[in-house]
Amino acid sequence: AVVSTQSTGIKGKEDALLSPADDIDDLKAYSIEEAKQKREYEKMLKTAEDKKVKVRKTIATLRSKFKKLRVKNKELPTHLALSAKDFEMDPLMESIIAGEVTEKKDLLKRQLAWDSEKARLQLAKLRKRFKDVVATDRVVLHAIETDHT
Hints:
Elements: H1 5-8, H2 11-18, H3 32-75, H4 91-131
């Protein structure tokens, strides 16, 4: 059964359905998923940067307070003032922090070594798959510009 579009009154809708869709011609334009991922990545970076700024402000505040304490300590009479050694970090705490830093460095070295080895193996596989298969023998031509042609 053929239905006439005039009788149903959907001619405008059918024309809209058959008209070519607008498409993005720019190759550098982001797809919807890429744009979403970029927004999430930028949001994550902004959050990390805000946290860094907050920590830097806290550190700056603590440093200024520490400097003020040292100045006040110098103004005190010698029998009431603390020695310079009293302002140093606890040696046990310092060794704990140094150990944590060493552990983090070792972990990072292991991760980088693993990534490096993974990349080396991937390159070797690609070479084996694509380059080594194209085995050619060296051919030297001596008769191109001679009388033998």
